Amino acid sequence: MIKSSINEQASALPRRAAPLEVRDLTVAYHEKPVLWDVDLSIPEGQLCAIVGPNGAGKSTLIKAVLGLIPKASGTVQFFGQPLEAARRRIGYVPQRSSVDWDFPTNALDVVLMGLYGRLGWFRRPGKAEREAAMHALEQVGLTAFAHRQIAQLSGGQQQRVFLARALAQASDLYFMDEPFAGVDAVTEAAILQVMRELKKQGKTVVVVHHDLETVRDYFDHLTLLNVQVIASGPLEQTFTPENLKATYGERMSVGVGR
Amino acid sequence: MSSDFVIVLTAIFVSTASALLGSFLVLRRMALMADAISHAVLPGIVLAFWVSGGERATAPALLGAAAAGLLTVTLVEWLTRTGRIKNDAAIGLVFPALFSLGVLAVSLYFRNVHLDLDAVLYGEIAYAPFNTLEAFGLNLGPESLWIMGGLTLVNLLFVLLFYKELKLSTFDAGLAAALGFLPAVLHYALMSLVSLTAVGAFQSVGAILIVAFLIIPPATAYLLTQRLPVMIALAVLVGAVSSVLGYVLAILLDASIAGMMATVAGLLFGLAWLFSPVGGVLTARNRRERQRREFAARLLLAHLAHHDRPVPAREVLEEFGWSPAFLAQAQQWAQREGLLAGDPNGLRLTARGAALAGERP
Amino acid sequence: MDLLAGIFTDYTLRNVALGAALLGLVGGVLGSFATLRRQSLLGDVLAHAALPGICLAFLLTGTKAPLILLLGAGLAGWLASLLMLAILRSTRLPEDSTLGVILSGFFGFGIGLLTFIQHSGDSDQAGLDKFIFGQAATVVGEDVLTMAVLGGVALLLVGLLYKEFKLLTFDPAFASSLGLPVRGLGTLLTSLTVIAVMIGLQTVGVVLMAAMLIAPAAAARQWTNRLSTMVWLSAAFGVLSGVLGAVISATRENLPTGPLVVLTASLITLFSLLLAPERGLVWDWRRTRNNRRRIRLERLLLDAHVLYNHAELTPESLAQRRRAAPARAKEELEELAARGWVTGRGERWELTEQGHAEAHRLEQAMRVLPKALNPRAEGGAGGAA
């Protein structure tokens, strides 16, 4: 219900197109729906969480939106444009466990990969790109580790390298897939600081998140997902016991009314 | 015994002995280890050949090959455990090195003796009737028949006696260990038998083609059933059919018997892949078509639920990008299920359809 | 020296060495990507699958022109890789079994075709079987040229698309999010591996081809943590194996080149695994041994420290405390003495000044241990902003 009222507001006010507008998105693995008829509008310049139980399709949502997996139906628009036209404005932080960290490369090199899209085919990164990558590493506090082989970094540091790679993309809209999963306190603080810095610059950040305890402290906008969108909107309106119960089922026992 | 009969019977023994072990190799994801072992038995055979003074002796050859097989398994596992090399790369490092040693030894010391490289490749099953076993002055018939018959019996006994343990350690090695079933011992026993079977079959189908018998029939059976006993039985059957048909084909075309047997096995695998009742490509395509129709119908219902008025078909086509024929199929299915009403103004849900669209999938 | 000089003077040896070196070069470069993508044994499958392609090419065209046969081999390998992908996508058959089925099925068919051709009495056919184990001695100038052109094309493409291949290998999902055609690039990389296999067929043959894609890359990985260095090193190791194998095989009659090239590459890999700086296993073993020894000595010192402070330090008391034989305890005291932590002789031993200080330091270290083990307290190994 909240969802529809916000949509009405959005259509009533003439304003810039939202960073992400998803309509009727359905995704299926072997014809079994993983996401069903998802409508979603992400407001500009906010920190947005996507929360839901395991298997709710949170990561699938990000991957489908970015075109990494095929969708059964639906449209996705970024800043009012289709994916291909808006690619340069989108940054992506995959799950840390999605790659083999024994790969022969160092932190700086991984961050440089964030600039490959802008470089285009055949061109190699040069001095300017190297400086941009170093700057991104500085933002996550890893300057001293630029030339460290990535397997020799701690889990939290690896996560921050991925974050720096996305920063190097210099995008307007960021997708982060479980960036807080299994990281140490230092990294958690660093990621949060970067997110807030991005917000200050007017960028939009969409984060797949699993920790209900921190949702209230970290985010402005919340989407509760369990195959379908249960609720989506400003945090105060969506982070309610009823919505959580609808998302997680009866056994939810996290204190919402703190 | 006619020589045709001896050859086919030997081949059936080879394929049965292999299929019994191969079923577990496929399930334990050790198919490529079998490939490695089958290559690596060559240096073991050469060594045994050398020890026994250039005579082709069965017992040392079996022992040497078993040792080489176990050496391969141990080396691969050690390399993987160091964490410096991934498992598949370790396999690809060990067997070419050992096989190279074998080839080198053959070319240096046993050139034109009883071991030649063609035999390594595709064996000499055609000669099976002529190498006879003699003991106590009695002619006991073809040697390869005795060897492969014996190995088939050993493998059968192994699988029957340790069926429960093999099954458990294949699906849950941790639990098997906790229950005291020593999965590691079973693992090395299985690997030893694979090596023995590879070297036993070496004379008839060659070291390399034995892989075809170890892997293809069980893989074919794997596509046909999800039950272990049925899978083993089917694997044995596929192996036997490949043996007989392969022999016939080889005679007709005057080509390598072992090669044609492997070819037939490959073709049978292809048939199972396409037509298997459980997940064959064509079977699955039919089922997927049906599911796709149903799934499209549900998408359609969900879309219609947003509207209070009948929606013209043209709008739906634009919305989903479907072809009119596909929409017609989905529409037909939904109408048959009583979810969609026949309305001249377009598509409209029945009460049941609206209720279903409101449900969570 | 004479032998190495032979590379420049002996026509046959030169061609053999060039062919093997080209294989090492191209195999080393593409093997780096294949092993990192966990497709080490793809080369093995492609090589085995090439055999029926060679035979069919001969049957259909009746020629033994190297380019025609190699094209047949390449097409068959390519077809096999497509079939493999199709089976993997459409069934739940494990990947290793799928590889095994394709490999042995294609190879068996190839053997069938080969024997069919041999028995058909076509006198032209002699020499087709050289592709199985390779017969480097039959490599002539024309073959080398064919290999060079094929290899040149493959290397040029790797050079042009290096950045894209690197990203594809490390993080395909991110590559896709940047808009790179991940599937197309993957197919291209596989196709280039097919080219490497085509180059190797005549020199090492289908059975041993896998090693030329894996061994140089596995060796190179041990020496460096940078992909570019790894690719160069892998190429260098490949060339080295090729040339050395060719030269050694020329020293005697009946020494086949292919197995020698493969064995050289395997030895280089073994050497790298054991002795490469940082990743070498020998250093690992030495570190473990030293650590064990250090820990044992430290615990020994603490025992001696307790005894000296609260009772008396004799071989008997130490033996009792450590539940060891007195003779062994005596040896242990000598070990401590060698470090300057205790002095004494016979029944009378005492801790030195240095021994006291060390024991004190160890006790302090053990007291802070629980705190250091707490991950929350320390955070990551590095300081953050």
UniProtKB/TrEMBL annotation, chain A:
Assigned keywords, A-Z: ATP-binding, Nucleotide-binding, Transport
GO MF entry, a single one: ATP binding
Record-linked InterPro entries: AAA+_ATPase, ABC_transporter-like_ATP-bd, ABC_transporter-like_CS, Metal_Ion_Import_ABC, P-loop_NTPase
Domain ABC transporter per the UniProt entry, residue ranges: 20-252
SMART domains listed in its UniProt record: AAA (SM00382)
Signal sequence segment: none
Record bears the keyword Nucleotide-binding: yes
Any one Pfam family match given in the protein's UniProt record, by short name: ABC_tran
Family, similarity comment: Belongs to the ABC transporter superfamily.
PANTHER family on file: IRON TRANSPORT SYSTEM ATP-BINDING PROTEIN HI_0361-RELATED (PTHR42734:SF5), METAL TRANSPORT SYSTEM ATP-BINDING PROTEIN TM_0124-RELATED (PTHR42734)
Protein's recorded name: ABC transporter related protein
Source organism per UniProt: Allomeiothermus silvanus (strain ATCC 700542 / DSM 9946 / NBRC 106475 / NCIMB 13440 / VI-R2) (Thermus silvanus)
Automatic annotation (TrEMBL), chain B:
Pfam family of the protein (one): ABC-3
Keyword Acyltransferase applies: no
Entry's Gene Ontology BP terms: response to zinc ion; transmembrane transport
Membrane topology: Multi-pass membrane protein
Transmembrane segments: 6-27, 32-51, 57-79, 91-110, 145-163, 175-199, 205-224, 231-253, 259-284
Cell compartments where the protein resides: Cell membrane
Keyword entries, A-Z: Cell membrane, Membrane, Transmembrane, Transmembrane helix, Transport
InterPro entries, per the entry: ABC_BtuC-like (IPR037294), ABC_TroCD (IPR001626)
Signal peptide residues on this chain, from the entry's feature table: none
GO CC annotations, alphabetized: ATP-binding cassette (ABC) transporter complex
PANTHER family: ABC-TRANSPORTER METAL-BINDING PROTEIN, METAL TRANSPORT SYSTEM MEMBRANE PROTEIN CT_070-RELATED
Similarity comment: Belongs to the ABC-3 integral membrane protein family.
Protein name per UniProt: ABC-3 protein
Native species: Allomeiothermus silvanus (strain ATCC 700542 / DSM 9946 / NBRC 106475 / NCIMB 13440 / VI-R2)
Organism ancestry: Bacteria, Thermotogati, Deinococcota, Deinococci, Thermales
